[in-house]
């Protein structure tokens, strides 16, 4: 009996060590705590440029900037840096955001002389990630620019998302009052709650009456956005994310058409990397837009070497700062080359070089959204994507050490 007992103990210990070795092997192969290998830093330095040097080919009409995270100050500030560049050198007069249409229209009214403050305008967008100093700074710049712009040179602000309804509903109410359209049967939708089939049918009838009454596209679009919200909230399949991206692509194309009617051929859109990327595991907004040649789609991705990211924890702690590493060989090369932040235009990298091959190799890149779980510590691939950078984007901006945003309290 004693021998059997000793044998069982040895068996358990041996099994534990084998399991530990297997787990360690798999863990390290998946990225583990390693920051990975860097691309050739000396070669990287030959092609790296200041972000302000960004140049966009003339045929590109939709210029998209992605965020590797929603919770870092640098990625939010890049919206302003790129916007200034596009306004000054590329004739862009429209900024479109991954935010709801109605909330972003409140921003548009503010930057055209509306009442309130830049902080209040940012809060109207509806997402906590935009109640930041960086977004306030962007909105303030747009308002100041419009103060001195001549007719037709003003900058417009749009939202292409449909996950919030309160401000969009208010815009629809204004339009119905102007065209004397009865809204009976619709009722005010509750934020975050799905519209009923009865409400959706009433909404369709209201839109038909508005169109018959000669309402402009901008007001009809309010009804379209609410119908998109209805479809998204009613969707019971697993492809809700793909449906949202399809709607966002349609909305971006609508914004482009509005600008073209104003004599402008280009727009600037911003959103998470996963939405603006030209390729991926699902039909993303960027993938859809890039497949339409007339869009002339141009995607600028971003990544970090190290991030201290402001993220919601889903607990009483609220939002906290979490540290992650991307394991991106290009981001690590940028850091080793001494850049705090830099731009790499893939079209300028010679294909027969080591770096030219690297940008088309499958690589890990950071990909953090509005979700944190301790599991992300155990499985690093859960916060990374594994794709060839030059297939996803036309160029990339790398931040060595990304710092957290600070959410401005409401009220």
Describe this structure in words.
- The protein has helices at residues 2-29, 41-47, 73-89, 101-111, 118-124, 133-148, 166-178, 197-212, 217-234, 240-261, 273-276, 285-291, 329-336, 354-358, 375-378, 389-392, and strands spanning 62-67, 94-100, 156-161, 267-272, 297-312, 319-325, 341-345, 363-366, 384-387, 395-402.
- The protein is α/β, with parallel strands linked by helices.
- The strands form two sheets. Strands 1, 2, 3, 4, 5, 6, 7 and 10 form an eight-stranded mixed beta sheet that branches. Strands 8-9 form a two-stranded antiparallel ribbon.
- Helix 8 packs antiparallel against helix 9.
- The radius of gyration is 24 Å and the shape is globular.
- The termini are far apart.
- 46% of the residues are buried.
Order of helices and strands: HHEHEHHHEHHHHEHHEEHEHEHEHE
What's the end-to-end separation, in Å? 72 Å
Biggest sheet record: 8 strands, mixed
Count all strands and give the number: 10
- Which regions have little confidence, pLDDT < 50, spanning 5+ residues? 19-31
How big is the Rg?
24 Å
Q: What's the assembly state of these chains?
A: single chain
Q: Return the structural class.
A: alpha/beta
Helix count from the secondary structure assignment: 16
What is the general shape?
A: globular
Mean pLDDT: 91
Helix content: 40-55%
Report strand %. Answer: 15-25%
């Amino acid at each position: 009996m004693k021998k059997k007992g000793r044998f069982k103990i040895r068996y358990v210990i041996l099994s534990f060590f084998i399991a530990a070795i297997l787990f360690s092997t798999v863990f390290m192969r998946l990225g583990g705590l390693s920051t990975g290998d860097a691309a050739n830093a000396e070669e990287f330095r030959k092609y790296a440029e200041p972000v302000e040097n960004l140049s966009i080919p003339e045929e590109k009409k939709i210029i998209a900037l992605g965020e590797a995270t929603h919770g870092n100050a640098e990625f939010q500030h890049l919206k302003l840096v790129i916007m200034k560049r596009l306004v000054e050198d590329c004739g862009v007069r429209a900024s479109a955001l991954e935010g709801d249409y109605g909330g972003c229209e409140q921003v548009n009214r503010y930057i055209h002389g509306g009442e309130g403050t830049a902080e209040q305008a940012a809060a109207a967008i509806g997402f906590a990630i935009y109640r930041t100093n960086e977004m306030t700074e962007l909105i303030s710049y747009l308002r100041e620019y419009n103060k001195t712009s001549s007719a037709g040179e003003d900058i417009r602000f749009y939202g292409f998302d449909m996950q919030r309804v309160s401000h969009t509903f208010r815009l629809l109410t204004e339009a119905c009052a102007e065209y004397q359209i009865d809204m009976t049967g619709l009722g005010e939708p509750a934020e975050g709650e799905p519209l009923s089939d009865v409400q959706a049918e009433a909404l369709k009838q209201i839109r038909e009456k508005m169109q018959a009454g000669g309402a402009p596209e901008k007001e009809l679009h309010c009804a379209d956005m609410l119908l998109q919200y209805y479809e998204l909230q009613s969707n019971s399949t697993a492809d809700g994310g793909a449906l949202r991206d399809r709607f966002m692509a349609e909305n971006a194309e609508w914004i482009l058409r509005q600008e073209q009617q104003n004599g402008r051929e280009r727009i600037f859109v911003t959103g998470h990397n996963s939405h603006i990327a030209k390729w991926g595991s699902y039909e993303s907004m960027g993938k859809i837009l890039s497949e339409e040649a007339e869009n002339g789609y141009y995607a600028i991705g971003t990544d970090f070497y190290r991030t201290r990211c402001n993220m919601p924890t889903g607990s009483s702690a609220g939002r906290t700062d979490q540290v992650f590493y991307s394991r991106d060989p290009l981001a690590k090369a940028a850091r080793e080359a001494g850049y705090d932040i830099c731009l790499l235009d893939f079209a300028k990298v010679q294909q027969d070089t080591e770096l030219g091959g690297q940008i088309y190799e499958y690589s890990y890149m950071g990909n953090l959204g509005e979700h944190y779980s301790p599991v992300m510590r155990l499985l690093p691939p859960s916060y990374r994507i594994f794709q060839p950078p030059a297939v996803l984007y036309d160029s990339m901006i790398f931040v060595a050490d990304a710092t957290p945003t600070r959410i401005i309290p409401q009220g």
